[in-house]
Specification:
mainly alpha, 124 residues, elongated
Amino acid sequence: MKIMKFGGTSVGKPERMHQVSQLITADDESKIVVLSALSGTTNSLVDISNAMASGNKSEAKQLIEKLENHYKEFVKQLLKSEPGLQAAGKILQEHFEFLYIILKISFQRSIEQRYFGTGRIAEH
């Protein structure tokens, strides 16, 4: 079994993703395939979290919208079939809906609930 990991420029543009697809499907050998996030995603998520943590929800919303639009455009260029576009659209909607939910509640409260199961940070 092969393990194949692709990141950076190999997943940076739809054309490159098509080349990755060709590499993955070139033979019938079993594979585990790992794809990194699209270029710029990690930095965008850090910027979004920093804006939320500092209470700048307006900036965070703009950054989320920018990242969402980037992914939507990427998917439009990557996929051509209507079923593929619909499936990808649902996946994107789920992930970005999560970011918008976090945006609606306080960032601190979401962290507290996620890691401590309460509305308050545990005292040390």
